[in-house]
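Lecture 7 notes: from sequence to structure.
We start with the chain below.
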Amino acid sequence: MSLDAITELLACPSCGESLGLSGRTLRCAGGHSFDLARQGYANLANGPEPANADTAGMLQARRRVQQAGLFAPLTEELAQLCAHDLTILDVGAGTGHHLAGCLPAEGVGLAIDISKSAARLAARVDGRIGAVVADVWQGVPVRSGVLDSVLCVFAPRNLAEFRRVLRPEGHLIVVTPEADHLLELREAFGLIGIEAGKQERLLAAASGLFSLVATRDVAYRRDCSADQVADLIAMGPNAFHGLHLDPPAMNVSFDVRVAVFSPIH
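Predicted structure tokens for the same chain:
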């Protein structure tokens, strides 16, 4: 889509002023301008794409996994939590799959990712979604207090910025992997482990900014083909480690925690 539906949510990354869309250019009152890419997304990042940004190959693997329904229970859980939200930001949105699955019919979604390859996919996944390239550690290019919810699924968490862009009655939804998530793959192929104490660190970081409202565990198993196993490995940071595997079909555990927070004002 064009960015028409979500332009009113955006803020200039240079000065914080509201952005307006004129033709294929976003402009603010301070004179800063940002051209839309031909694929329909806007690049609001203040710098080059980092070396650890998701690659096109990683995102294609992730899209195949998502289209196969391997993360459908998680998307369904997120959709229930966002059922009444009209403005949703997905941080580290990747393909935009979860965001598209969460939006109610009348809602609009903003997909933010540091990867241009991700923005290209997210800009095309659903007509209600606009995609922006941005580094959330440098700030979220969104006006203050305009969002009903922020999704953060396995993504960087700039909690102070998330609180700023949420409405007072809005909510933050953070998804983190639990110890058994993709356990069979990590054990079989020596993949990157899951750090202990993730939940404790999240709660500590949220202190003074957000109150924990609820937690929900989404745990299940799926029979995965050899190709799906390969894609599960290739879709994440293990792809940067030059693994060359020929995995078999496997029964795989999916185990994540969904934490819902409300902003403290």
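Points to note: The first helix runs from residue 56 to 67. The radius of gyration is 18 Å.
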